[in-house]
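USER:
Before I trust my own judgement here, I would like a peer's view. Write it directly below this note and I will take it from there.

ASSISTANT:
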Amino acid sequence: MNLKLTALSFLAVCGLAIANPSPNAPKTVETALTKAYIPLGFDDNDRIQIAVAGTFKNTCYKVGPHALKVDAENKTITVQQQAYLYSGVCLQMLVPFSEIVDVGIIPSGNYKVVDSQTGKALAELPVNVGTSAGPDDFTYAPVSDAYVVKDEETGKHMLAIAGSFGDRCSDFQEIKVNVANDVIIVQPVLERKADISCSPEKVRFLKTVELNDNVKNGVYMLHVRSLNGQAINKLVDLE
């Protein structure tokens, strides 16, 4: 028996597999979004990223892909969120979910972020006119991770940012933190020192900053700018 498959027979087998998916494969359904988290301070030359969130009604739903439509003329951004719906036994409990949505670079203006399924306006996204040809108003530290922890002794929320400088003449000038619309916006501004050697070298850092008292318990989007343009974006549930 010849076990070798020709290219044609291989494609035929693959096509059959695609046409007949697993009987246990989930359905793809559209699901509603209930909130959008919008970092402030975006310009029309920034890569814009936002967060959206919703709640599944039981445990048979899992987060699926999302789609985005930007209407620059009517200043709307429509987000369609899908979910994978599995069969079987489902626990009847509410399951929160969230997604980071990459909007990209869009023209200036005040946009409405709209849920595709319900047509509900979730938030407004202001996009300013850029004031310079450069990518940012500041040069940011190369942050690779960020999180918020609670100091058990003081009860304060502490922001931690981690990453690696590319040489020893880089340091933090300041870490700007602003809180607006349930978003913690962090700008880790880089400083260059000219009085020491700048030979290439990996220098790891872990920097902590105490958040002020207007950061209460609850869910926030943590948005931390970074040198490579890939901001750290995640939802954090503070208590």
